[in-house]
Amino acid sequence: MKYTFYTADVFTDQIFGGNQLAVFPNSQGLTTKQMQKIAAEFKFSETVFVFPPQTTQGTRNLRIFTPVTELHFAGHPTIGAAYILSLIGDISIFEEKQTIFFEETIGLVPVSITIEKGKPVYVELKAIQSPVFNNNSPSALELASILGLKITDFRSDKFFVQGVSCGVPFLFVPLHNREALGNIQFNHECWKHILANHWAPSIYVFCFEPEREESDLRARMFAPSMGILEDPATGSAAIALGNYLTIQEEISDATFNWTVEQGFEMGRPSILKIIAKKKRGKVREIWVGGSSVLVSEGSMEIPEL
Length: 305
Fold this sequence. Notes:
By secondary structure, the protein is of the alpha+beta class. The protein contains 6 helices and 18 strands.
């Protein structure tokens, strides 16, 4: 049977930047095995398959696959799917800013779409899972062997190595500067021996020395266990990062904003915006958003497996 798909670049306003995504707007009839084969064929970080909602609150039901596994939540597929579905008119948007709800395995995810001149220009999602923190981290020497860096490249002040999950666990590794970030030479064998079976096997490395004046952080993300050596933009990690950063802020009641640049070393510059709301010393809301652009439209003949 033939299925229509669209591809988009997510977390960018320029084609050939951001994180690539394939979206199948009408996936009824596809099996799990077929969807996994399709995702492996595209070889994008993720491919998203859209189904009718299963609840009265849901706008659509999403299933998200990397080239090797299915995810119960991911940021850039959620944002990219909202962009594509509103762009092609599959979801009707009647206001300049409208919230829809995607059913994902993690739960019902609120997604806000901003419209200008009848087209989506910005999409953001709200985190629905409270953060889980894990301080059982590899040593600086072990991380240096995985990333091909020196021990002196790692920060060890209030910004320390820590695992954080808001649905997907990441190991946050802060560095001193952008030069160290650019010097990373990822060693898959070292990762396999040290981190493959860790609570947070995906490594999110960052520094507070971005390239753009408008940015606050520069990041890189490596997730071999998901079949992703390096990811150009990671929305689920940005959610966890928002929690990681907010708990370091001493102000108990405030709204914080960070702009993260990622994917620059890959030649796919991406811009992710994080909004965190803190009240009475606790993180109450995390939003992550960005722009997307349409790249292509096509169809795929899917054989029975």
